[in-house]
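W.,

You were right to be curious about this one. When I first looked at the sequence I had no strong expectations either way, so I just let the prediction run and decided to look at it fresh. Below is the sequence, 153 residues in total, followed by the output.
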Amino acid sequence: CRSACRQRLKILGKKYDTYRILNCDLEEQLSAAADMFAMQKVDTSVRLATACNARDFVRFVKQKAGQNGGDVVKQGDDGCAVTLTQYMQELGIQDPRTLCVETLGLMPSPYATLYRHFDVFSKMRPRGGEKTAKLLKLFLKRTHLKGKYFAEL
């Protein structure tokens, strides 16, 4: 795969060099007339939280609950530290090994279209309920644990 990619990049580089040789006069004319203030801004905002699929997310949650269940994830109402295992039990997840994509409501809606966004972080609209919204916020937001789980994912 690497050799094919490397070969494709070399071919593209040669094509670009040929383009520059053939069109250098045209490029110089266009760049001389270009207005620096008329340049377009390109938005490179990337939502990394949507980069992993639901199955990988559930697998990661199971792994973290099994291996790092003693991690302190928040402070309780009484000021006591709440571990990941305790937090999941608060959410009604007694055994993290039983988690799956369907029980968390992470399956795409059969009524969703390409252009209709479904906000899984909202408490008003999560398909899996408030439990799923809280679990997603814990693992996919940078504000919890300074983004530790998000970075590991």
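Here's what jumped out at me. The chain has a mean pLDDT of 77. And, maybe more interesting for your project: The two ends are 25 Å apart (CA to CA).

Coffee later to discuss?

I.
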